């Protein structure tokens, strides 16, 4: 079995992203717009993460801060599921709370 996820990035003349969209037919997603993306792939051969971080030139800074916070929370939860390391996961969540507090994201 195989599935496919497609990411399309439209660039301006200076190669700066203007539009990002993604499609994942198995998830019911078709040409859905996005303002930013963070993708990390593990290269077992080099033991390094290959990363793609993109955002459109009209991505508001306040939304970028929320996006980062939500990504950090997601990473902490994924770390917990992947490693079962409750102590470090809790420490990561503490940092997420601190991050949100310092950026005044929580009301």
What does this structure look like?
The protein has 107 residues and is an alpha+beta fold. The chain has helices at residues 61-83, 86-102; strands spanning 6-11, 17-24, 29-34, 36-43, 48-55. Helix content is 37%, strand content 34%. Strand 4 (36-43) and strand 5 form a beta hairpin. The longest helix has 23 residues, at 61-83. The radius of gyration is 16 Å and the shape is globular. The mean pLDDT is 96.
Oligomer: single chain
Strand element count: 5
Quickly give the structural class: alpha+beta
Please give the count of helices. Answer: 2
Helix content: 25-40%
Relative strand content: 25-35%
The best one-word shape is globular
Mean pLDDT: 96
Low-pLDDT residue intervals, each spanning 5 or more residues:
none
Main beta sheet: strand number and arrangement? Answer: 3 strands, antiparallel
How big is the Rg?
Answer: 16 Å
Amino- and carboxy-terminal Cα gap: 45 Å
Strands of the widest sheet, in order across it, are 1-2-3
Order of helices and strands: EEEEEHH
In short:
Helices cover 37% and strands 34% of the residues.
Please name the defining characteristics of this protein.
two-stranded antiparallel sheet; three-stranded antiparallel sheet; 107 residues
Question: How is the secondary structure organized here?
Answer:
Elements: E1 6-11, E2 17-24, E3 29-34, E4 36-43, E5 48-55, H1 61-83, H2 86-102
